[in-house]
Amino acid sequence: MQTFDLEKEGLRALNSSLHALKGQTNMTRWEVINPKGAHAIAAGVDAEVEITVRGSTGYYCAGMNKQATILIKGSAGPGVAENMMSGKVVIDGDASQYAGATGRGGLLVIKGNASSRCGISMKGIDIVVHGNIGHMSAFMAQSGNLVVLGDAGEALGDSLYEARLFVRGNVRSLGADCIEKEMRPEHFELLERLLKAGEADAKARPEQFRRYGSARKLYNFNIDNASAY
Amino acid sequence: MCGIVGLFLKEPRLEPELGAMLTDMLITMTDRGPDSAGIAIYSPAGKGLGKITVQSATPDRDFDALDGDLREAIGAPVALMAKSTHAVIEVPLEQIEAARAALAHLRPGVKVMSSGENIEIFKEVGLPKDVAARFGLSKMGGTHGIGHTRMATESAVTTMGAHPFSTGSDQCLVHNGSLSNHNGVRRMLRREGMTFETENDTEVAAAFISHKLKRGEALGSALEATLTDLDGFFTFVVGTHNGFGVVRDPIACKPAVMAETDEYVAFGSEYRALVNLPRIESARVWEPEPATVYFWER
Lengths: 229, 298
Description:
The complex is a heterodimer. By secondary structure, chain A is of the alpha/beta class. Chain A contains three helices and eleven strands.
């Protein structure tokens, strides 16, 4: 186990050590102490390692992550796991706005609540939120899955493309072109797998969720709307 | 981008530490606003007394013999304590308006930062650590306070353009964001008799709230009105003689984190502003909801 005191050694030193691993290392377990809300902790890692952050993080923790498992033993600031490519990020506490934004792959697990714009423009990432999500979540989400055990705020899935949204609780309102869709057998299977991967299988069952997706009405120009432009 | 910090103490034992805690929080927010910094700190002036905080570009000349000149003008006791470019002037509470009128006449170059029973405002251009040091902020005590680090977008980097803005007795406001309809609202408020020192958007928000309070509205409803009448991005933190309030616009892209314990309620633009507060590990930490008014009073 490599223990790194962020307060003493600084962010540059941490991230350059992690970047130097370049996918091949026998130093597979890392621990970051005294994060104290610092920005960009463990951003840009590309190695199959496990990094435990003991405390709360600031902007863009685990951004662009590839392969690594990053465990945050606190809450995360804005843009956690932004543009994640692969790997796994697990947050024990809450996540601030735009968690998992533009993520292309991997799994983001938020055990508390996520605030606004969770999964905005997601492009293949899977996100499992044990609590609630804020307004404008999954805005323009293109692909991947967003699973929410609690409630969703206003304008869920506005201008949605092909991401799948599963919400167990109430949805304050759906955004433009987002509609409820039927749960088919493949969706129950998918949810079963995501709940297990997201450490939520003891808290929820797939049949408790509703599915939301794109009505696909904004995909093509509609001449009836010409006067609106 | 700007940084906001705020601290409201529930535990009187911490009051002597208020300035030290706020200074640490303010300096942590330097990355969000290196242009200018300011702080509003609330501590009682003493029975029957009020305070006026003033600023001058030439303090040696303006503050020299000012206490004597004011005493003569208003016919009441005056105490003046100069701190760098600012000075806190204590006068009997009922003489505050008379003292302000006399000041404008005696020292036309002096700007009033704030006045009231409890409030003192110190703000200047420069890095937060330098601004804090020149006023000795870390030595100040009080019941609650608000600080701001500024990265200017809407108006010039000047002392008067720094936050907090005070547009009413014991009131102040700081802002992260930018307003788009401030010119229209300023014109409306001018017709209603409000006066402005700058072309700054935040001063309009402060005056908007002061105007509502002047007409007898409660602070809660004045803050609610910002959600319908002010257009733009904002996280506001507002101070009054006995508390502070927080409101974010409905889009809520300007960050805000709060922490509450039995000893205090704290506000930070980012969590890292709060990390050195006592017993933060066991605090309830949350983000204020969009379009929701929060308020704490003692």
